[in-house]
Protein backbone atom coordinates (compact mmCIF):
# COMPACT_ATOMS: atom_id res chain seq x y z
CA UNK A 1 0.00 0.00 0.00
CA UNK A 2 1.43 3.43 -0.93
CA UNK A 3 2.73 5.58 1.91
CA UNK A 4 0.30 8.39 1.03
CA UNK A 5 -2.65 6.02 1.43
CA UNK A 6 -1.33 4.77 4.79
CA UNK A 7 -0.99 8.35 6.00
CA UNK A 8 -4.55 9.12 4.90
CA UNK A 9 -5.89 6.07 6.73
CA UNK A 10 -3.91 6.94 9.87
CA UNK A 11 -5.15 10.53 9.72
CA UNK A 12 -8.73 9.33 9.35
CA UNK A 13 -8.43 6.97 12.34
CA UNK A 14 -6.84 9.67 14.49
CA UNK A 15 -9.58 12.08 13.44
CA UNK A 16 -12.26 9.53 14.35
CA UNK A 17 -10.70 9.05 17.79
CA UNK A 18 -10.67 12.83 18.26
CA UNK A 19 -14.34 13.14 17.33
CA UNK A 20 -15.29 10.31 19.69
CA UNK A 21 -13.29 12.10 22.37
CA UNK A 22 -15.26 15.28 21.73
CA UNK A 23 -18.49 13.32 22.27
CA UNK A 24 -17.01 11.97 25.50
CA UNK A 25 -16.36 15.54 26.64
CA UNK A 26 -20.06 16.27 26.15
CA UNK A 27 -20.79 13.37 28.51
CA UNK A 28 -18.31 14.87 30.99
CA UNK A 29 -20.15 18.20 30.83
CA UNK A 30 -23.41 16.47 31.75
CA UNK A 31 -21.97 14.14 34.40
CA UNK A 32 -20.09 16.89 36.21
CA UNK A 33 -23.16 19.12 36.37
CA UNK A 34 -25.32 16.24 37.60
CA UNK A 35 -22.90 15.33 40.38
CA UNK A 36 -22.31 18.93 41.47
CA UNK A 37 -26.06 19.50 41.89
CA UNK A 38 -26.45 16.65 44.42
CA UNK A 39 -27.50 17.89 47.84
CA UNK A 40 -25.26 17.05 50.82
CA UNK A 41 -26.49 14.07 52.83
CA UNK A 42 -27.30 13.84 56.53
CA UNK A 43 -27.38 10.49 58.34
CA UNK A 44 -30.57 9.28 60.07
CA UNK A 45 -28.36 8.26 63.02
CA UNK A 46 -24.73 8.81 63.97
CA UNK A 47 -23.17 5.51 65.08
CA UNK A 48 -19.67 5.52 66.58
CA UNK A 49 -16.93 5.51 63.93
CA UNK A 50 -13.31 4.36 63.89
CA UNK A 51 -11.10 6.06 61.30
CA UNK A 52 -8.08 4.00 60.25
CA UNK A 53 -5.09 5.95 58.93
CA UNK A 54 -2.24 3.72 57.68
CA UNK A 55 0.93 5.84 57.52
CA UNK A 56 4.33 5.59 55.87
CA UNK A 57 6.71 8.51 55.70
CA UNK A 58 6.02 12.18 56.30
CA UNK A 59 3.93 13.44 53.41
CA UNK A 60 3.94 17.25 52.96
CA UNK A 61 1.31 18.86 55.21
CA UNK A 62 0.74 15.50 56.91
CA UNK A 63 -0.08 17.10 60.27
CA UNK A 64 -2.87 19.23 58.81
CA UNK A 65 -4.18 16.31 56.74
CA UNK A 66 -4.46 14.06 59.79
CA UNK A 67 -5.82 16.85 61.98
CA UNK A 68 -8.76 17.36 59.60
CA UNK A 69 -9.94 13.81 60.38
CA UNK A 70 -9.50 14.37 64.13
CA UNK A 71 -11.64 17.53 64.18
CA UNK A 72 -14.90 16.16 62.84
CA UNK A 73 -18.26 17.64 63.90
CA UNK A 74 -19.38 14.14 64.85
CA UNK A 75 -20.21 12.80 68.32
CA UNK A 76 -18.10 9.64 68.72
CA UNK A 77 -14.93 9.20 66.66
CA UNK A 78 -11.85 7.09 67.28
CA UNK A 79 -8.81 7.67 65.05
CA UNK A 80 -6.19 4.93 64.82
CA UNK A 81 -2.84 5.72 63.17
CA UNK A 82 -0.64 2.81 62.12
CA UNK A 83 3.05 2.46 61.20
CA UNK A 84 5.39 -0.52 60.87
CA UNK A 85 8.58 1.21 62.05
CA UNK A 86 8.75 3.19 65.32
CA UNK A 87 11.31 5.46 63.65
CA UNK A 88 8.99 6.33 60.78
CA UNK A 89 8.71 10.15 60.65
CA UNK A 90 4.94 9.76 60.29
CA UNK A 91 4.89 8.29 63.81
CA UNK A 92 6.40 11.49 65.19
CA UNK A 93 3.70 13.54 63.45
CA UNK A 94 0.98 11.29 64.88
CA UNK A 95 2.45 11.56 68.40
CA UNK A 96 2.54 15.36 68.11
CA UNK A 97 -1.09 15.42 67.02
CA UNK A 98 -2.09 13.14 69.91
CA UNK A 99 -0.34 15.53 72.31
CA UNK A 100 -2.00 18.59 70.75
CA UNK A 101 -5.52 17.09 70.96
CA UNK A 102 -5.73 15.52 74.45
CA UNK A 103 -9.53 15.42 74.37
CA UNK A 104 -9.71 13.38 71.16
CA UNK A 105 -9.77 9.58 71.02
CA UNK A 106 -6.51 9.02 69.12
CA UNK A 107 -4.16 6.04 69.13
CA UNK A 108 -0.87 5.20 67.43
CA UNK A 109 -0.22 1.54 66.64
CA UNK A 110 3.36 0.50 65.89
CA UNK A 111 3.42 -3.08 64.59
CA UNK A 112 6.16 -4.52 62.34
CA UNK A 113 4.30 -7.74 61.43
CA UNK A 114 3.95 -8.21 57.64
CA UNK A 115 0.88 -10.04 56.30
CA UNK A 116 1.46 -9.89 52.54
CA UNK A 117 3.07 -7.88 49.77
CA UNK A 118 0.64 -4.94 50.09
CA UNK A 119 2.12 -3.15 53.09
CA UNK A 120 -0.83 -0.76 53.42
CA UNK A 121 -3.20 -3.70 53.90
CA UNK A 122 -0.68 -5.33 56.24
CA UNK A 123 -0.74 -2.14 58.29
CA UNK A 124 -4.55 -2.17 58.41
CA UNK A 125 -4.59 -5.79 59.58
CA UNK A 126 -2.33 -4.80 62.48
CA UNK A 127 -4.49 -1.76 63.29
CA UNK A 128 -7.81 -3.64 63.35
CA UNK A 129 -7.04 -5.12 66.77
CA UNK A 130 -7.36 -1.62 68.22
CA UNK A 131 -10.47 -0.46 66.31
CA UNK A 132 -13.41 -0.32 68.72
CA UNK A 133 -16.41 0.95 66.80
CA UNK A 134 -18.92 -0.73 64.43
CA UNK A 135 -18.38 1.65 61.49
CA UNK A 136 -14.92 1.74 59.91
CA UNK A 137 -13.53 4.48 57.66
CA UNK A 138 -10.18 4.03 55.89
CA UNK A 139 -8.56 7.05 54.21
CA UNK A 140 -5.13 7.62 52.69
CA UNK A 141 -2.67 9.82 54.55
CA UNK A 142 -2.48 12.57 51.90
CA UNK A 143 -6.20 13.37 52.10
CA UNK A 144 -7.82 16.36 53.81
CA UNK A 145 -11.49 16.73 54.69
CA UNK A 146 -14.05 19.25 55.95
CA UNK A 147 -15.65 19.00 59.43
CA UNK A 148 -18.90 17.50 58.06
CA UNK A 149 -17.08 14.72 56.18
CA UNK A 150 -18.15 11.88 58.49
CA UNK A 151 -21.79 12.99 58.45
CA UNK A 152 -21.87 12.80 54.68
CA UNK A 153 -20.05 9.47 54.49
CA UNK A 154 -22.25 7.85 57.14
CA UNK A 155 -25.34 9.20 55.36
CA UNK A 156 -24.32 7.30 52.21
CA UNK A 157 -23.58 4.15 54.20
CA UNK A 158 -27.05 4.33 55.80
CA UNK A 159 -28.85 4.10 52.45
CA UNK A 160 -30.78 0.83 51.93
CA UNK A 161 -28.67 -1.93 50.39
CA UNK A 162 -25.38 -0.01 50.62
CA UNK A 163 -22.45 -2.03 51.95
CA UNK A 164 -19.66 0.47 51.29
CA UNK A 165 -19.42 4.23 50.81
CA UNK A 166 -16.53 5.82 48.95
CA UNK A 167 -15.54 9.34 47.89
CA UNK A 168 -13.85 10.90 44.93
CA UNK A 169 -11.07 13.38 45.44
CA UNK A 170 -9.65 16.50 43.86
CA UNK A 171 -5.98 17.37 43.66
CA UNK A 172 -4.54 20.47 45.30
CA UNK A 173 -0.95 21.01 44.15
CA UNK A 174 1.32 22.04 46.99
CA UNK A 175 4.43 22.63 44.98
CA UNK A 176 5.99 22.89 41.55
CA UNK A 177 5.09 22.22 37.93
CA UNK A 178 5.11 18.45 38.46
CA UNK A 179 2.59 18.79 41.30
CA UNK A 180 0.37 20.93 39.08
CA UNK A 181 0.55 18.32 36.31
CA UNK A 182 -0.41 15.65 38.85
CA UNK A 183 -3.40 17.69 40.02
CA UNK A 184 -4.37 18.35 36.41
CA UNK A 185 -4.67 14.60 35.83
CA UNK A 186 -6.78 14.02 38.95
CA UNK A 187 -9.11 16.97 38.41
CA UNK A 188 -9.60 16.95 34.65
CA UNK A 189 -9.08 13.31 33.62
CA UNK A 190 -9.58 10.87 36.50
CA UNK A 191 -12.47 12.65 38.26
CA UNK A 192 -14.65 13.23 35.16
CA UNK A 193 -13.92 9.72 33.85
CA UNK A 194 -15.29 8.20 37.06
CA UNK A 195 -18.39 10.41 36.90
CA UNK A 196 -19.08 9.39 33.30
CA UNK A 197 -18.47 5.75 34.25
CA UNK A 198 -20.99 6.09 37.08
CA UNK A 199 -23.65 6.92 34.48
CA UNK A 200 -22.93 3.68 32.59
CA UNK A 201 -22.06 1.10 35.26
CA UNK A 202 -23.94 -0.26 38.29
CA UNK A 203 -21.13 0.74 40.67
CA UNK A 204 -18.61 3.58 40.35
CA UNK A 205 -15.49 1.92 41.77
CA UNK A 206 -13.88 2.26 45.18
CA UNK A 207 -11.18 4.79 46.05
CA UNK A 208 -8.53 5.03 48.74
CA UNK A 209 -9.65 8.59 49.51
CA UNK A 210 -12.48 7.00 51.54
CA UNK A 211 -13.60 3.45 52.18
CA UNK A 212 -16.42 3.30 54.75
CA UNK A 213 -18.20 0.12 55.79
CA UNK A 214 -19.57 -1.72 58.79
CA UNK A 215 -17.18 -3.98 60.66
CA UNK A 216 -19.62 -6.88 60.19
CA UNK A 217 -19.67 -6.34 56.42
CA UNK A 218 -15.87 -6.46 56.35
CA UNK A 219 -15.97 -9.71 58.31
CA UNK A 220 -18.47 -11.22 55.84
CA UNK A 221 -16.16 -10.62 52.87
CA UNK A 222 -13.10 -12.09 54.59
CA UNK A 223 -11.56 -9.03 56.25
CA UNK A 224 -8.57 -7.03 55.05
CA UNK A 225 -6.52 -10.23 54.83
CA UNK A 226 -8.35 -11.12 51.61
CA UNK A 227 -6.58 -8.20 49.86
CA UNK A 228 -3.09 -8.51 51.38
CA UNK A 229 -1.37 -9.24 48.05
CA UNK A 230 -3.46 -7.01 45.77
CA UNK A 231 -2.13 -3.78 44.30
CA UNK A 232 -5.62 -2.38 43.64
CA UNK A 233 -6.79 -3.16 47.17
CA UNK A 234 -9.49 -0.47 47.24
CA UNK A 235 -11.03 -1.60 43.94
CA UNK A 236 -10.88 -5.28 44.94
CA UNK A 237 -12.56 -4.47 48.25
CA UNK A 238 -15.39 -2.71 46.44
CA UNK A 239 -15.74 -5.61 44.01
CA UNK A 240 -15.98 -8.03 46.95
CA UNK A 241 -18.76 -5.91 48.45
CA UNK A 242 -20.70 -6.06 45.16
CA UNK A 243 -20.12 -9.83 44.90
CA UNK A 244 -21.60 -10.19 48.40
CA UNK A 245 -24.83 -8.57 47.19
CA UNK A 246 -24.35 -5.02 48.49
CA UNK A 247 -24.16 -1.71 46.65
CA UNK A 248 -21.22 0.72 46.61
CA UNK A 249 -22.30 4.36 47.07
CA UNK A 250 -20.37 7.34 45.77
CA UNK A 251 -20.59 10.15 48.32
CA UNK A 252 -21.36 13.75 47.37
CA UNK A 253 -18.42 15.14 49.33
CA UNK A 254 -15.09 15.51 47.57
CA UNK A 255 -11.93 14.81 49.56
CA UNK A 256 -8.88 16.97 48.91
CA UNK A 257 -5.63 15.27 47.92
CA UNK A 258 -2.69 17.45 48.94
CA UNK A 259 -0.38 16.61 46.07
CA UNK A 260 3.39 17.03 45.99
CA UNK A 261 5.48 15.57 43.17
CA UNK A 262 9.06 16.81 43.75
CA UNK A 263 10.35 15.97 40.29
CA UNK A 264 9.46 14.44 36.93
CA UNK A 265 10.72 10.98 37.88
CA UNK A 266 8.53 10.80 40.99
CA UNK A 267 5.48 11.91 39.02
CA UNK A 268 6.07 9.37 36.25
CA UNK A 269 6.68 6.46 38.65
CA UNK A 270 3.60 7.38 40.66
CA UNK A 271 1.32 7.67 37.65
CA UNK A 272 2.73 4.59 35.92
CA UNK A 273 1.80 2.60 39.03
CA UNK A 274 -1.72 4.02 38.79
CA UNK A 275 -1.88 3.24 35.09
CA UNK A 276 -0.73 -0.35 35.53
CA UNK A 277 -3.13 -0.78 38.44
CA UNK A 278 -6.06 0.24 36.23
CA UNK A 279 -4.75 -1.87 33.35
CA UNK A 280 -4.61 -4.89 35.66
CA UNK A 281 -8.24 -4.36 36.70
CA UNK A 282 -9.82 -3.75 33.28
CA UNK A 283 -7.34 -3.87 30.38
CA UNK A 284 -9.88 -3.50 27.55
CA UNK A 285 -11.72 -0.63 29.22
CA UNK A 286 -8.45 1.09 29.97
CA UNK A 287 -7.24 0.74 26.38
CA UNK A 288 -10.55 2.19 25.19
CA UNK A 289 -10.13 5.15 27.52
CA UNK A 290 -7.53 6.51 25.08
CA UNK A 291 -10.36 8.41 23.40
CA UNK A 292 -10.76 10.51 26.57
CA UNK A 293 -7.71 12.42 25.31
CA UNK A 294 -9.01 13.89 22.04
CA UNK A 295 -6.51 16.75 21.80
CA UNK A 296 -3.46 14.55 21.03
CA UNK A 297 -5.48 12.59 18.46
CA UNK A 298 -6.69 15.80 16.82
CA UNK A 299 -3.11 17.10 16.70
CA UNK A 300 -1.92 13.83 15.17
CA UNK A 301 -4.68 13.92 12.56
CA UNK A 302 -3.74 17.48 11.60
CA UNK A 303 -0.05 16.56 11.27
CA UNK A 304 -0.78 13.44 9.22
CA UNK A 305 -2.98 15.48 6.89
CA UNK A 306 -0.03 17.77 6.17
CA UNK A 307 -1.59 20.56 8.25
CA UNK A 308 -4.42 20.86 5.77
CA UNK A 309 -6.98 23.51 6.67
CA UNK A 310 -9.78 21.06 7.65
CA UNK A 311 -7.42 19.11 9.93
CA UNK A 312 -6.12 22.24 11.65
CA UNK A 313 -9.67 23.55 12.07
CA UNK A 314 -10.76 20.29 13.74
CA UNK A 315 -7.74 20.41 16.05
CA UNK A 316 -8.43 24.00 17.12
CA UNK A 317 -12.12 23.25 17.66
CA UNK A 318 -11.45 20.19 19.82
CA UNK A 319 -8.75 22.01 21.78
CA UNK A 320 -11.18 24.86 22.50
CA UNK A 321 -13.91 22.40 23.55
CA UNK A 322 -11.47 20.60 25.88
CA UNK A 323 -10.47 23.89 27.53
CA UNK A 324 -14.12 24.90 27.97
CA UNK A 325 -14.89 21.58 29.69
CA UNK A 326 -11.83 22.00 31.95
CA UNK A 327 -13.14 25.36 33.15
CA UNK A 328 -16.60 23.78 33.62
CA UNK A 329 -15.04 21.25 36.01
CA UNK A 330 -13.13 23.99 37.85
CA UNK A 331 -16.30 26.02 38.38
CA UNK A 332 -18.46 23.04 39.39
CA UNK A 333 -16.06 21.97 42.14
CA UNK A 334 -14.58 25.37 43.07
CA UNK A 335 -11.08 24.31 42.02
CA UNK A 336 -8.11 26.64 41.72
CA UNK A 337 -7.63 27.41 38.04
CA UNK A 338 -4.42 25.95 36.71
CA UNK A 339 -2.88 27.48 33.56
CA UNK A 340 -4.70 26.36 30.42
CA UNK A 341 -1.46 25.68 28.56
CA UNK A 342 -0.95 22.73 30.92
CA UNK A 343 -4.04 20.98 29.51
CA UNK A 344 -2.64 19.76 26.16
CA UNK A 345 0.72 18.96 27.80
CA UNK A 346 -1.06 16.90 30.45
CA UNK A 347 -3.21 15.08 27.87
CA UNK A 348 -0.19 14.08 25.79
CA UNK A 349 1.57 12.85 28.94
CA UNK A 350 -1.50 10.88 30.06
CA UNK A 351 -1.93 9.21 26.69
CA UNK A 352 1.76 8.33 26.65
CA UNK A 353 1.56 6.74 30.11
CA UNK A 354 -1.50 4.77 29.05
CA UNK A 355 0.47 3.29 26.14
CA UNK A 356 3.55 2.59 28.29
CA UNK A 357 1.41 0.84 30.93
CA UNK A 358 0.82 -1.99 28.45
CA UNK A 359 4.57 -2.41 27.86
CA UNK A 360 5.57 -3.92 31.20
CA UNK A 361 4.40 -5.27 34.55
CA UNK A 362 6.74 -3.63 37.04
CA UNK A 363 5.68 -0.92 39.51
CA UNK A 364 7.42 1.08 42.23
CA UNK A 365 5.56 1.71 45.48
CA UNK A 366 6.84 3.23 48.72
CA UNK A 367 10.46 2.66 47.73
CA UNK A 368 9.94 -1.00 46.79
CA UNK A 369 9.71 -2.67 43.39
CA UNK A 370 7.06 -5.21 42.48
CA UNK A 371 5.90 -7.22 39.50
CA UNK A 372 2.19 -7.45 38.71
CA UNK A 373 0.77 -10.95 38.30
CA UNK A 374 -2.06 -11.55 35.82
CA UNK A 375 -4.64 -11.44 38.64
CA UNK A 376 -3.43 -8.04 39.84
CA UNK A 377 -1.52 -9.39 42.84
CA UNK A 378 1.90 -8.04 43.80
CA UNK A 379 5.09 -10.10 43.63
CA UNK A 380 8.14 -8.61 45.35
CA UNK A 381 11.17 -8.13 43.09
Outline of the structure:
The protein is α/β, with parallel strands linked by helices and 381 residues long.
Task: Give structural notes.
By secondary structure, the chain is of the alpha/beta class. It folds into 2 domains: 3-36 and 275-380, no CATH class; 49-182 and 202-264, Spore Coat Polysaccharide Biosynthesis Protein SpsA, Chain A (Alpha-Beta Complex). The protein contains 13 helices and 13 strands. The protein has helices at residues 3-36, 62-70, 89-100, 119-128, 149-157, 177-200, 215-220, 233-243, 264-281, 283-288, 294-304, 309-332, 342-357, and strands at residues 49-54, 77-83, 105-110, 135-138, 143-144, 162-166, 169-173, 211-214, 247-250, 255-259, 362-365, 368-372, 378-380. The strands form 3 sheets. It has a 7-stranded mixed sheet with strand order 3-2-1-4-8-6-9, with helices on both faces. A 3-stranded mixed sheet has the order 5-10-7. Strands 11-12-13 form a 3-stranded antiparallel sheet. Helix 2 packs across helix 3, helix 9 (264-281) crosses helix 13 (342-357) and helix 11 runs antiparallel to helix 12. The radius of gyration is 22 Å and the shape is globular.
Question: What distinguishing features does this structure have?
Answer:
381 residues; alpha/beta; Spore Coat Polysaccharide Biosynthesis Protein SpsA, Chain A; 2 domains; 7-stranded mixed sheet; 3-stranded mixed sheet; globular
